[in-house]
Specification:
This is DNA mismatch repair proteins mutS family domain-containing protein. The protein is of the alpha/beta class. It has 19 helices and 14 strands.
Length: 526
């Protein structure tokens, strides 16, 4: 271990140049994992959402994370112990940062030595945890190997011997052995601390014979050594001023070495603490779904090819069902996207599950590229470079431009940042005007998105939009994504939240909803 070398290890990123995209607060709010965040907040502190905003766009980085998460799933005690140990390391770092320890005194040196001993103990605890666990991931293996090379280094080994020799002194430090160099006038010019001793200094017979020659000022040194040994210093006699100035740099050098040792290790551990919280979030979600009896899987993320998802569901809805003990009522859906993408027009009844399904696709892509397990039975997912949501705005956000104006402006901004590898989820977009005007705007928007080549799910009440699918697919742009009709909410006049390929049904659950809330004609006139 070289104290002058800096070492950077991340359990989230392979390199500093890994590609990624960020989700803004509004996108995260629209995807809706609110119940998950509420559940996590009961056990975890801090801004959890900030850990989930930066989304990898590299299959290698995603696999790197998946492998680490698998290690923690297979070794749950490792995750918990590692989190607690790294937390202790961060507490030591913060204590050092805010402590008043700049003065070169023996008191401060001993305090530093105590901190070094703690850091060494924690370092070895982490190493033995990793060594004794069945880990297979590249990230945790690199961390273990770094710790092993650190502990096996000559610097660490020799320093540890000195540190623990001092710590094992039964009665503490009683004397300080100092080497002093003199100039030609026998005035001290430099010094080095040779050792700390557990026994007080005693005159030897030879020293007694020459004490009358060299003891000028020595009685003062014996009686009031405060300036050297404690921050609450007393002034030394003038005869000892030179000696004080000579010893101080030696003390300062030892304190600086302790600081450098601590900083080199704690500087590695501090960012890893946040990485571990990220994996604790992933592990808790995995465990919650598993214990609740919901399917959850590790997706296969690919750079090119078709997306196929079997048995998907909305994870926020799953949390709600677990709270109300309705786990067995979850409807699972299958979903696929062709290699060059698709434009999906999703229609169906009111409260038929269109928004819930649209959000579930966002959740699955988000979790997949974070390296999490996802709410599905099985999945192969083609990588995306950006995830966008275009959901209705709150009234307060539409004061300046009106609702339609705000939605159009927001879509224009989204479109300008999209590529053929982007995913856009649209929920009842452009319905802030008349039915006919909404249809015209939506048609133009879908044609532009098809030309761009992006993948889109557009869930809408505009059933006429679904009737334009054949015309859109007959466009001369042969390589453009195929437009597909999806329908949800009803089949053979039976309520269903299944999503399937098919033409718009042109009906809703309006009658059923009216009856449920007591506003049907028959109920009102009774």
């Amino acid at each position: 271990m070289n104290m002058n070398d800096s070492y950077e290890l991340s359990l989230l990123w392979l390199t500093d140049s890994d590609s990624y995209f960020e989700l803004d607060d509004r996108t995260i709010e629209d995807i809706n994992i609110s119940l998950i965040l509420d559940d996590l907040a009961d056990n975890l502190e801090g801004d959890l959402v900030s850990l989930l905003k930066k989304v990898p766009a590299s299959a290698d980085t995603i696999e790197y994370r998946q492998d680490i998460l698998n290690d923690f799933i297979n070794n749950p005690l490792l995750l918990d112990t590692l989190k607690n140990t790294l937390q202790k390391c961060v507490e030591i770092k913060n204590m050092i940062k805010f402590a008043f320890e700049s003065e070169a005194t023996l008191y401060n040196l001993l305090k530093r030595i105590d901190e070094v001993a703690n850091v060494m103990s924690l370092t070895e605890n982490i190493y033995h945890m990793l060594k004794n666990s069945s880990i297979a991931s590249k990230g945790l293996t690199l961390f273990r190997d770094f710790l092993q090379s650190t502990i096996d280094s000559d610097v660490y080994h020799n320093f540890k011997e000195d540190i623990y020799h001092i710590k094992e002194m039964e009665e503490g430090v009683h004397s300080l052995k100092v080497g002093i160099n003199f100039d030609y006038n026998l005035k001290p010019v430099e010094a080095i601390v040779l050792s700390l001793e557990d026994k007080p200094f005693k005159y030897s017979r030879k020293l007694k014979k020459v004490s009358k020659i060299v003891n000028y000022g020595f009685s003062e040194l014996k009686s009031i050594p405060r300036k050297i040994f404690a921050p609450e210093s007393l002034m030394l006699p003038d005869s000892l001023n030179n000696l004080e100035k000579i010893i101080a740099p030696a003390m300062k050098q030892l304190i600086a070495f302790c600081d450098q040792f601590n900083s080199s290790l704690l500087g590695v551990y501090e960012p890893l603490k946040q990485d571990i919280i990220f994996y604790e979030i992933a592990y808790r979600i995995y465990n919650k779904m598993n214990d609740g009896g919901f399917p959850i899987c590790k997706p296969r993320v690919i750079g090119e090819g078709s997306t196929k998802i079997e048995g998907l569901y909305n994870i926020n809805l799953a949390y709600d069902m677990m709270d109300s003990q309705k786990n067995n009522e979850m409807v699972l859906n299958d979903f696929g996207i062709e290699p060059i993408g698709n434009i999906f027009i999703l229609t169906g009844a009111n409260r038929g599950g269109k928004t819930t399904f649209t959000q579930s696709i966002g959740q699955i892509y988000w979790f997949s590229q974070l390296g999490f397990y996802i709410p599905a039975k099985n999945a192969t997912i083609r990588l995306i470079d950006r995830l966008f949501l275009h959901f209705p705005s709150e009234e307060i956000q539409t004061v300046t431009y009106g609702r339609l104006g705000e939605e159009c402006q927001r879509f224009s901004t989204i479109y300008s940042h999209m590529s053929p590898n982007s995913l856009l989820l649209m929920n009842e977009s452009f319905d802030g005007t008349s039915h006919l005007e909404s249809l015209i705007i939506a048609t133009d928007v879908l044609k532009a998105l098809q030309l761009l080549g992006a993948t889109v799910i557009f869930n809408t009440h505009l059933h006429e939009l679904g009737e334009k699918v054949e015309d859109m697919n007959m466009d001369e742009h042969v390589e453009a994504p195929r437009v597909v009709n999806l329908v949800t909410g009803s089949k053979d006049d039976v309520q269903s939240f299944k999503v399937r390929e098919g033409k718009p049904l042109g009906q809703s659950y309006a009658k059923e909803i009216a009856i449920k809330y007591g506003v049907s004609y028959e109920q009102l006139i009774e």
